[in-house]
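Data deposition worksheet. Section B asks for the primary sequence of the deposited chain exactly as it was used as input, without tags or linkers unless they were present during the calculation. Section C holds the resulting structure in token form. Section D is free text for depositor observations; keep each observation to a single sentence. Incomplete worksheets are returned to the depositor.
Section A, Depositor: J.P.
Section B:
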Amino acid sequence: MDRLVYLYLASILAGFAMAFVPTSSLVTEPIANFFEIVGGVVILVFSLALVHLGLKALFTKHFN
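Section C:
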């Protein structure tokens, strides 16, 4: 379970890295915009997954 949490945290950090890619001669503006959108979706999905794991762990301990 801990490895899954660390994987989700690493995915959130990767999403932040994708969301803040600077434009350059290699990464043009449309590509940077695409990475920003995908990074935001990744951050949102894996944050919700972490909240789900936390609530599941809280309620299974509480009701057992």
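Section D:
The first helix runs from residue 2 to 19.
The two ends are 18 Å apart (CA to CA).
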